[in-house]
Amino acid sequence: MMRIFRGFFIVWTVLRFGLDELVLSGFQKPWIKLIRRVVSIGRNLRAPRGERLREALESLGPIFVKFGQVMSTRRDLLPPDIADELARLQDRVPPFESALAVSMIEKSFGRPLAQIFASFDHTPIASASIAQVHFAVLPNGREVAVKVLRPNMLPAIEKDLALMHMMAGWVEGASADGKRLKPREVIAEFDKYLHDELDLLREASSAAQLRRNMAGLDLVMIPEIIWDYCMPDVMVMERMKGVPISQTQRLRDAGVDMKKLARDGVTIFFTQVFRDGFFHGDMHPGNIQVSLEPATFGRYISLDFGIVGTLTEVDKEYLAQNFSSFFRRDYKRVAELHIESGWVPASTRVDELEAAIRACCEPYFDRPLKEISLGLVLMRLFQTSRRFHVEIQPQLVLLQKTLLNIEGLGRDLDPDLDLWSTAKPFLEKWMIEQIGPEKLFAQLKIEAPTYAKLLPALPRLLTQYLQQKPDAGRRELMELLAEQKRTNKLLQGIIYGGVGFLLGLVAMQVILRVRLF
Question: Cβ–Cβ contacts within 10 Å for residue 461, how many?
Fold first, then answer.
């Protein structure tokens, strides 16, 4: 019965904000056009479609708000006006009652709040669709931030997801356009993502990994996780004190170097991407602060680690080569990278894909380099690639969305920010490392344990082989001894060749530094 009432409420909200007209406008069948005109009679639908969609999701509650937030990251699938409106859903969710938060905490720890914290601020400092944050003090006097899941989230999620799956099936069956958008796959991805985000231990582990990765950079601060106080639905971390990065005038008045702050943001992001392959995937201004404390003045403070992205070595190589090819205007190489990666069918003609990519990217190069948006270039590339049946990888879409956030944030801080000049050292260093002696030695170091186990066993394995085949073994042994001199000469040649190879790699590094970019 509750599901029926919820279904009716969703239908009423859809009609109230004209979302039915928004959906039907994408279909071209005559009978659907007729339905669209009929359902629009007597309703005021003059507000922009993106605004109506955002307000409808806010009315439907936290789960649909979270869905809008997730969809706002898929700019490769959405029109720009809708994506921009959905991005406004960040940090717009009203908090839930503090008594419910206290009840959740006491239930998780199995004891009264007074026995857990020395003090607890009942007024939340931040609220989102999945959880909200309160400040507190531990019994040892340490100031902390306590993140608490919204109560009864799992049952509410299951009900709304069931309805979303059902509606996705309707949309997919309505037309070819509906099938192309793959709504069921989108909802399935959201389903997995949402269930993962309900586990705050998972978020805590992501925060700990980022903190460990960024420890030596001295540009960003990430709160320490207090593991003794972490549960699946409660996460306690170090309290961070900073100014929201959106308060630019306050930062300028405090003496923060805004140009350096913009460059540091780009440095942090590209370090996470190309050095670590593990990056904060939700770097909008609501999750970023700047420290004004004397010891850490001007450093970034990262918050909220529910969304993180990971990249494989293959992903990083693809990105580095694509970026460098873009700015050399080597569109043929970009097309070849798509085919080599397997994202485009092997039968795709390189010249056709090259022409499409040229049409996508060339307009950007009529502007100064500092005005070129890497995020927009990637987004246009993804949109163009759909014509060639490319399946865009989710981790790269998240990267593109985060890159757009970083670019927008950096240029708000410094309109003259040249993102490419800041990113270039990372791309250059990474590509050189992939073909240099450092990569060879690193790989040998990784394989060393395997070789260490294998080498001592070789004499025993050889003895066993000779015992099983004594005649053949003796003949083979005599042949080996006879060839020993030739083998020694061969080994000398290998050693000399190896030294020459390493010298060649060093020379190649020098050439790459001069010519690659």
Answer: 10
- 416-456 pLDDT, tens per residue? 877 777 777 777 777 676 655 666 666 667 766 776 666 67
DSSP H helical ranges for 88-197: 98-109, 113-116, 153-174, 176-181, 183-197
Model pLDDT for residues 469-512, shown as the tens digit of each residue: 555 555 655 565 555 555 555 555 555 555 555 555 555 555 55
Tokens 């340490």 belong to residue: 142
pLDDT tens, position by position, 188-203: 767 776 777 788 999 9
> Per residue in 45-71, is it b (16+ CB within 10 Å) or e — as a string?
eeeebbebbbebbbebbbbbbbbbbbb
Supply the pTM of this predicted model.
0.70
213 contacts: CB under 8 Å, gap ≥ 6: 272, 275, 276, 278
Distance of CA 426 to the CA centre of its chain: 18
Amino acid identity of 161? L
Q: Which residues are catalytically annotated?
A: 282
- Residue, of 117 and 485, whose pLDDT is higher: 117
Beta strands in 38-123 (DSSP E): 119-120
Structural domains for the chain: 2-93+157-196 (no CATH), 94-151+199-239 (3.30.200), 240-435 (no CATH), 437-515 (no CATH)
